[in-house]
Amino acid sequence: ARFVGPTTLDVDGHTHVEARAVVIATGSEPVIPPPFDAVREHVMTSDDVFEIPDLPESIAVIGTGIIGLELGQALHRLGVDVMLFTPFDELGPFTDPSIQALAHEIFGAELKLQLRSKMLSATAVPDGMQLHWTDSDGNEHRQIFERVLVAAGRRPRLKGLGLENTGLELDARGQPVWDPHTTQAGIAPIFVAGDASGHIALLHEASDEGHIAGANAMSYPEVTAHVRRTPLAIAFTDPQMALIGQHYSELDLDEVEIGTASFENQGRARVIGRNRGLLRVYGKRHCCTLVGAEIFGPEAEHLAHLLAWAVQQRLSVPQALEMPVYHPVLEEGLRTALRRLAKKLRVTGQCRCEDMAIAPGI
Questions:
Q1: 50 in the same domain as 24
Q2: 78 and 37: one domain?
Q3: Which of 21, 276, 290, 352 suits 303 as a labelling partner, its CA being 20 to 30 A distant?
């Protein structure tokens, strides 16, 4: 279906639908950058990588974001010869430079990484795909890989929807300008949910947006703004990666302090032989409230949930330190980071934010 008017849809040329309100929930699609767009039929994406019948001898992974690192590391540990490529220097979703540096050290010790590389060509050959690239020093390389997995991100699936016929304001990417609290596009009776919004492409976020969009579409012209949950993202690498609340890149460093704990010497992490990683928690100076964290470490998925709940409840650092912690557990590392944060904030007793009306989400 495609829009032929503000709320009029054409379905395959044979049916016109006049709607009182419309929800766009078309999902997303993989980004296939040059030169792989010219050989699309010969490369895999996260949509089809699990359909291969056998493990390849070798694979080139294009992209070092969450998907690229998760799949690349998993394939490497299954015995596949893996090489990861990116034109950038970043690994994973981290924005905190201390954690990004440790990710380089740990992943770089296990995986073959071609950071700051430039892909010149990709040619299908009988044995797979021949890649031609320059490395970070400008040296040229050619190598044949049995498979190529493109994990260069995803974009909203909006092409062909006829959004230009809706009268909606579109941004530079051609996406509707959109309110995450109502999912409404402008003031039109059009609502956008899930990956199609280009907001946060995660299942729990999409589920929330589907609920909000459906409710507001049904009640239109009455539209209700909803408080969004604290942002939470987790990647299942080893060590795991997690971002909670405000990321380092979103902080006003003049307004926050940072508490740090390494897993290298953390008791439980040493006992289970997984003592690699770093935890960084962020708190506001003027009210001692927890606002976010970035984690690279063992079982980060569980620590991330505790922190997300704390951020959403607007807990102060002293309040968080009042919570019980067993011994020996990984959560003791979180307590260490909170204690160091409290010391930097120089707080004692109760320390609450004055303005409790500020939404904890976006």
A1: no
A2: yes
A3: 352
DSSP 8-state class, residue 285: T
pLDDT digits (tens, 9 = 90+) for 150-161: 999 999 999 999
DSSP string, 105-169: HHHHHHSEEETT-EEEEEEEETTEEEEEEE-TTS-EEEEEESEEEE-S-EEE--TTS-GGGTT--
What are the backbone dihedrals phi and psi of residue 326, each rounded to the nearest 5 degrees, phi first?
-80, 170
Tokens of 222: 């009455």
Q: Nearest 5°: CA angle at 120, between 118 and 124? A: 130
- 273 and 317 both lie in a single domain: yes
pTM, 2 dp: 0.92
Cα four-point dihedral sign 23, 26, 28, 33: negative
Q: Is the domain of 47 the same as that of 112?
A: yes
Cα–Cα distance, 218 to 291 (Å, whole number): 34
Whole-number Å distance between alpha carbons of 161 and 356:
41
Residue 176 contacts residue 156 (beta carbons within 8 Å): no
Shared domain check, 141 and 203:
no
Which CATH number characterizes residue 326's domain?
3.30.390.30
Give the range of the structural domain holding residue 61, as residue numbers without chain letter. Answer: 32-152
CA distance 220 to 134: 54
CATH at residue 115 = 3.50.50.60
Q: How many domains does the chain have?
A: 3
Distance CA 218, CA 231 (A): 26
Residue 351 lies in a domain: no
Query: pLDDT tens-digit profile of 192-227?
Result: 999 999 999 999 999 999 999 999 999 999 999 999
Evaluate whether 17 touches 8 at the Cβ level (below 8 Å). yes
**Cα-based distances in Å from 152 to 60, 147, 179, 237, 266:** 12, 16, 26, 17, 35
